[in-house]
C-alpha cells in the first residue's frame, strides 16, 4: 500500500529500510510489516522521507549503487544520522532470487533490499567526500574517453577510404585533447588538496605506478592506508577465491572488488614487472616456477596494492630497501 509511513508511538521496533533508486524517484519499503512510500529523488522528497522515518528505530537503510543517482539520498540520509549501506546491484539481485522473488519491479526491489538489510546486515559506510566524488567522475570520463580513443584508432587502422581516415584522424586529435585536459584537471584538483597531494606523492614513488593509476587509487580506493593487506587485496578484487568441493581442488580465481582499480593495477603491474627491481624479481621467480604470465601479473598487482596500503599507512615514500 502506498502512502505515508506512520510512526509507531510505542516502543519502536528495529526495522530495515530498502530504497530502490532511479533518476526521478525513490521507492521505499520498511521491513518488517512497514508500508511502502514513493518520494521524489530530490531535496524535498528526502525531507519527506526523513519525516516519515523519524519515529522508527532504523537499523540500516540499504540501496543499490548507481552511477550517481544514489549519491544525494546516501549523503542526505547519512548526514541525518541514518546508517546507509550501498550494495552491489548484482549481490542484491542474487539475494532476491535466492529469496524466491523472480518478479522485478521498483516495489519488489525495494522490499528485497529491506529484507536483505534485515537478513545480512550489510556494512554501512559514510559517503565519499565531495572532492573524491569529483575525482571519480573526472577519472571515469577520462577512462571512457581512452576506450573511445582506442576504438577510433582501430577503425582508422582498418579504414580504406582516404576521406574516412582523415575524418577519424580529426576525431582522434579532438579526443586526445579532451583526455589531456581531463588529466590536467585531475592533477590540478589533487595538487590543490594537501592531503591528496601527499598521498599522491607516496603512491607515485612506487616504480611502475604513474599519475593515472595513482589518481584511480586515490578516488576509487580511498580506504587505502586504513586496511589490512588482505582487505586491500579483496577490495581491489585481487584476493584468490577457493574453488574446492569434496576431494576436488580447483584453481584459485580472483573476482569481485572494484573493477576500475583492478584495471588500473593491471597496467601498473605491466610497468612494475619491468621497472620495479623487487617486483621484477618476484615476477620472474613466479614465471620460472611455471606460473602463467597472467597469474604472475595478478600476483604483482596484489603486491602493488598491499605495498601502496602499507606506505600510506606509514606515511612514507617507497625506498629500494625497507627502512
Structure write-up:
This protein has 323 residues and is an alpha/beta fold. The chain has three domains: 14-120, ATPase, nucleotide binding domain (Nucleotidyltransferase, domain 5); 130-192; 206-323, no CATH class. It has helices at residues 43-53, 71-79, 89-98, 106-120, 130-158, 162-192, 194-204, 211-220, 229-235, 259-275, 277-288, 293-314, and strands spanning 14-21, 25-31, 36-40, 57-64, 84-87, 241-245, 248-253. The strands form two sheets. The chain has a five-stranded mixed sheet. The protein has a two-stranded antiparallel sheet with strand order 6-7. It is globular. It starts with 13 loop residues before the first strand and ends in a 9-residue tail after the last helix.
What's the total helix number? 12
| Regions with little confidence, pLDDT below 50 for 5+ residues | none
Largest beta-sheet characterization: 5 strands, mixed
Oligomer: single chain
Topology:
Elements: E1 14-21, E2 25-31, E3 36-40, H1 43-53, E4 57-64, H2 71-79, E5 84-87, H3 89-98, H4 106-120, H5 130-158, H6 162-192, H7 194-204, H8 211-220, H9 229-235, E6 241-245, E7 248-253, H10 259-275, H11 277-288, H12 293-314
Parallel strand pairs: 1-4, 4-5
Antiparallel strand pairs: 1-2, 2-3, 6-7
Give short descriptive properties of this protein.
single chain, 323 residues, 3 domains, two-stranded antiparallel sheet, 7 strands
Amino acid at each position: 500500500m502506498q502512502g505515508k509511513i506512520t510512526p509507531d508511538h510505542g516502543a519502536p521496533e528495529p526495522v530495515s529500510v530498502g530504497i530502490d533508486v532511479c533518476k526521478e524517484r525513490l521507492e521505499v519499503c520498511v521491513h518488517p510489516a512497514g508500508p511502502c512510500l514513493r518520494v521524489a529523488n530530490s531535496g524535498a522528497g528526502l525531507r519527506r522521507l526523513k519525516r516519515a522515518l523519524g519515529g522508527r528505530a532504523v537499523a540500516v537503510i540499504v540501496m543499490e549503487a548507481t552511477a550517481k543517482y544514489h549519491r544525494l539520498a546516501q549523503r542526505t540520509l547519512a548526514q541525518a544520522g541514518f546508517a546507509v549501506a550501498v550494495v552491489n546491484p548484482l549481490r542484491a539481485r542474487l539475494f532476491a532470487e535466492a529469496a524466491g522473488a523472480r518478479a522485478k519491479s521498483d516495489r519488489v526491489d525495494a522490499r528485497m533490499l529491506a529484507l536483505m538489510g534485515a537478513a545480512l546486515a550489510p556494512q554501512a559506510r559514510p559517503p565519499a567526500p565531495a572532492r573524491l566524488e569529483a575525482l571519480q567522475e573526472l577519472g571515469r570520463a577520462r577512462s571512457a574517453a581512452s576506450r573511445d580513443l582506442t576504438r577510433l584508432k582501430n577503425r582508422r587502422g582498418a579504414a580504406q577510404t582516404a576521406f574516412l581516415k582523415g575524418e577519424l584522424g580529426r576525431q582522434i586529435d579532438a579526443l586526445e585533447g579532451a583526455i589531456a585536459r581531463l588529466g590536467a584537471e585531475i592533477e590540478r584538483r589533487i595538487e590543490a588538496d594537501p592531503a591528496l597531494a601527499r598521498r599522491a606523492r607516496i603512491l607515485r614513488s612506487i616504480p611502475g605506478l604513474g599519475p593515472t593509476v595513482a589518481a584511480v587509487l586515490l578516488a576509487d580506493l580511498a580506504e587505502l592506508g586504513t586496511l589490512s593487506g588482505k582487505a586491500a587485496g579483496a577490495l581491489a578484487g585481487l584476493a584468490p577465491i577457493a574453488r574446492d568441493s569434496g576431494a576436488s581442488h580447483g584453481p584459485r580465481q580472483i573476482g569481485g572488488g572494484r573493477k576500475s582499480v583492478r584495471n588500473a593495477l593491471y597496467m601498473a603491474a605491466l610497468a612494475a614487472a619491468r621497472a620495479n627491481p623487487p617486483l621484477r624479481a618476484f615476477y620472474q621467480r613466479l614465471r620460472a616456477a611455471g606460473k602463467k604470465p597472467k597469474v604472475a601479473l595478478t600476483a604483482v598487482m596484489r603486491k602493488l596494492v598491499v605495498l601502496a596500503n602499507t606506505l600510506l599507512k606509514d606515511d612514507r615514500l617507497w625506498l629500494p630497501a625497507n627502512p
